[in-house]
Amino acid sequence: MQKTLLLVVSFLALYVVKKYQDWRRAVRSIHDVPGYRHVFGPHSFLLVRRIRYLCTGSFTPWLKKHDDFAQYDSDIISGEITGARTRFPKPLDAYEGINVYGHNIVGTEADEWKRHRKITAPSFSERNNRLVWDETIGIVQELCEDVWGGKDHVVENIVDVTIPLALFVIGAAGFGRQMSWKADLNVSHGHTMPFKDALHVISVELWIKALLPSWFVEWAPIPRIRAFRTAYTELERYMIEMIEERRGSEKKEQRYDLFTSLLDANEEESDGITKLSDSEVMGNIFVFLIAGHETTAHTLAFTFILLALYQDQQEILYQHIKSVVPDGKLPSYEDMGKLTQCYAVILEALRMYPPVCLIPKTTAEDTTLHTCNMAGEPIAIPCPAGTGIGVHIAGLHYNPRYWKDPYAFNPSRFLEDWPRDAFLPFSGGARSCLGRRFSEMEAVAALTYIITRYRVEVKEEPQFAAETFEQRKERLLTCKTAITLYPAKAPLVFKRR
Ligand code: HEM
């Protein structure tokens, strides 16, 4: 017994010494640049939660925003990294879990990524943007008039509205399948689950596939995992049917959803590019869902919360919309360019609450990063090949060097000349977000329609009657993070105007 204990203690001691040596070597390789030190690495699965002195936790960049940079007297390095794709590629092992159904644009690098980007990018066309707009208006109209019956409505948590809203938009303008707020009782022939439910289960439960071993997912007799298994196979079957159906039909009516456009682009002759296989087509269309669903839903959720808190800003927005969209008319795609205040509100919400707070990259070769201290004097940081890097979006968005009064909700800053290099919610450079216009169309259309008809307020609750504005703000804007940043719980009231 004593021998075993001695052995365990010796192993532990050796492990600690080895860790310390590795850590010293890593810190020396970047010339002892001051900053946080992680013992187990910032992306360790076990340490996603903050553990002082061992790990800053994946949530910390959001909590600290620009504070760490101020403390260590350094500016943020972003453009140099996002602008040099080959020097700073993605750490592909961190993206392994995203290659569901097939390889895709998000989880690939180098020539493979170029091939995916070349074939998928044309689907995000102007015609698709128009479709996003029209579908969004239809979906929010059904929500306000049919589901809420044109009356006041209390929402216990705003994401309960924005998550289905964004799902229906991606379902219609992404997959080409219209969905409704009403329960879908029609299970298509040969299926056991409606398309809408399969899409919903997969998009909220993807962690099951990403984090649990596949043998466990295939076997586990746990209802939640069983539902995931069914949804996973069902969605795959729906997608295969959609591919076959679109291939099989004669040149049909023109459709501009991402799925149809992707299949069309893949069929076209293109100089020397290998076509996507069926599994790669499914991998890409699926990754559009994952990349675009929560991000847009949470952006809209934060926007509604901010407007509910800042009634003066909501009034400015309301008056602006009224000046652009005539009374009783539906906002049209052509109005988008004129809805500047609405767009500014969305951008300000994205600046303050970027759904993706940290973008992982790595160094392909030995290199040096260049930045400066807060006084503007240059600092050089050596980075050996294979160094993990995180582009700190929250730090950038709250840097007072670029954003005056960064904690203030001030949409009008986006109506003047604003620092584009210090705004990276959609990343930047060659690997920037492909769905940016998709999500902007959706957010502006939804906001315009709803704000014209409803005033958004914070739900009054007796237990919070005595809270100050700051306390209320903190309560509603407390965030959590899963894959993306989201509001923990924000009860709002939509009052018919
Ligand atoms: C507010 C909404 C959105 C935000 C904040 C956002 C943010 C981002 C970010 C930060 C990246 C870079 C990720 C990385 O490097 O790992 C990205 C990439 C991407 N996004 Fe978005 N996104 C949004 C909406 C969408 C939508 C609606 C779609 C599709 C329908 C979409 C599709 C993509 C794709 C395909 C990429 C990969 C581009 C590439 O690697 O070449 N995104 N997005």
From TrEMBL:
InterPro entries: Cyt_P450, Cyt_P450_CS, Cyt_P450_E_grp-I, Cyt_P450_sf, Cytochrome_P450_monoxygenase. This is Cytochrome P450. Coiled coil: none annotated. Pathway: Secondary metabolite biosynthesis. Its cofactor is heme. Pfam families: p450. Keywords: Heme, Iron, Metal-binding, Monooxygenase, Oxidoreductase, Signal. Residues 1-19 form the signal peptide. The keyword Iron applies. The keyword Disulfide bond does not apply. GO terms for molecular function: heme binding; iron ion binding; monooxygenase activity; oxidoreductase activity, acting on paired donors, with incorporation or reduction of molecular oxygen. Heme binds at C433. Belongs to the cytochrome P450 family.
